[in-house]
């Protein structure tokens, strides 16, 4: 399978918007971190919101490791891939890395057929929608993403891309200002 066979970003424009008339979903209040809540918990809350608003099966926030330019950490996850929170994966050989390269939201169809590490780690994905976390002066901090796995009726569209763009606002600055620090094993998260 080739890279061009899994990148389907152009399909976003041909898919009907499903939530255009659903004001309650669009106007859901933003989950705001409370005093005493860790950054990881705040990011996880943002993932839960993405999961709900995009009707996805998994959601997550990947942060690029500034010490290792070819790794990223799934800093927060929700849904089916929640057990992978804190795991490190390759950046250059991933949907998140391609989102970085293209500097914009990307839609992927069955990326596990191209990125072999996904299949090796039992990360099987029907669709993945990945949006960049871009900070001040264009600094790229990571991505926010939603995925579908075994529900073939889930097809992400421009509403979902708009949702991820909305949820990504301020995340890069929050991450930069509140360095999550290392996990118990000493890996940056």
| Mass-distribution shape | globular
The domain tally reads 1
Per CATH, the superfamily is: GAF domain
Low-confidence parts, pLDDT < 50 over ≥5 residues? 21-33, 180-184
Would you report the number of β strands? 6
The percent range for helix content is: 25-40%
CATH topology: Beta-Lactamase
CATH class: Alpha Beta
Count of helical stretches: 7
State mean pLDDT (0 to 100 scale).
Answer: 84
Most strands sheet:
6 strands, antiparallel
Short description:
With 189 residues, this protein is α+β, with helices and mostly antiparallel strands.
Account of the protein in words:
The protein starts with a helix and ends in a 12-residue tail after the last helix. With 189 residues, the chain is of the alpha+beta class. It has seven helices and six strands; from the N terminus they run αααβββαβαββαα. Strand 5 (127-134) and strand 6 form a beta hairpin. It is globular and about 40 Å long. Helix content is 29%, strand content 21%. The chain has a single domain, classed as Beta-Lactamase. The protein has a six-stranded antiparallel sheet, sandwiched between helices. This is GAF domain-containing protein.
What's the SSE blueprint?
Layout: H1 3-6, H2 23-26, H3 39-53, E1 58-64, E2 71-79, E3 88-90, H4 95-102, E4 106-109, H5 116-120, E5 127-134, E6 140-148, H6 158-168, H7 171-177
Antiparallel strand pairs: 1-2, 1-6, 2-3, 4-5, 5-6
Helix pairs in contact: 3-6
